[in-house]
Amino acid sequence: MKNGNAIHTFIEDAVALLGDIDVVTYFAEPLPCVVDEQIRGIVSRFTAVTPSERAQFQEALPPEHRSLFGIYGHRAATIAARQNDADWLRSGLTGFAIANYTIPQKRKVEVGMAVYLHVAQKLGLNPVDLFEETAVYAAPTIATELLAFCRRPDVTLTKFGWQELKTREGVKYKFNYQ
User: Fold this and answer.
1) Dihedrals phi, psi of 176, to nearest 5 degrees
2) Predicted pLDDT at 42
3) Per-domain residue ranges for the chain?
4) Residue 20: CB atoms within 10 Å
């Protein structure tokens, strides 16, 4: 396959796969599920391409598909906490960065980042290292947010509206709407 075609094939494959995912069904699936593995595969391919190819991918991704990466990111962070697996957390935070390629005006992305920082600490990772590693895959705006947030000394789940619940399946992170 020619180099120029590889990114187009990747984009087409990703868009086709994501187009077949029902958001409501995916959100309710047990952790982990086949869709988690499929999106993890997309994230892995995304991190392996050049910065200009990542930009092409981001520009080609429809908003409804972008939201799936947000759901995936949260699910991956939960899987990471349950399995004590830093790779799931890295993949999830990268998914979060993909989802927030363009940050809507009223979205407070720091609310979502609190879970990743919490799980990083829970796994014994340095959150600054994790967020810096992930920021290289992010658009400039979200990269700036990631790099600032990971250095905040005041981050707790509760402060950002989250609760860690213990379930039969393992931990679960629930946002308390207020």
Assistant:
1) -95, 105
2) 98
3) 3-175
4) 8
| Nearest in space to 10 (alpha carbons), one of 138, 33, 18 | 18
Mapping DSSP onto H, E and C, the string for the chain reads CCHHHHHHHHHHHHHHHHHCCCHHHHHHCCCCCHHHHHHHHHHHHHHHCCHHHHHHHHHHCCHHHHHHHHHHHHHHHHHHHHHCCHHHHHHHHHHHHHHCCCCCCCCCHHHHHHHHHHHHHHCCCCHHHHHHHHHCCCCHHHHHHHHHHCCCCCCCCHHHCEEEEEECCEEEEEECCC
The per-residue pLDDT for range 80-111, each reduced to its tens digit, is 999 999 999 999 999 999 999 987 777 789 99
Q: How far apart are CA 164 and CA 157, in angstroms?
A: 8
**Apex 24 CA angle, 143 and 142, nearest 5:** 5
Instruction: Tell me which residue of 105, 73, 98, 103 sits closest to 88, measured CA to CA.
Output: 73
Is residue 118 within 8 A of residue 157, CB to CB? The reply is yes
Tokens encoding 141: 């705006």
Q: Of the candidates 75, 172, 90, 178, which has an alpha carbon nearest to the alpha carbon of residue 137?
A: 90
pLDDT < 50 regions, the chain: 1-2
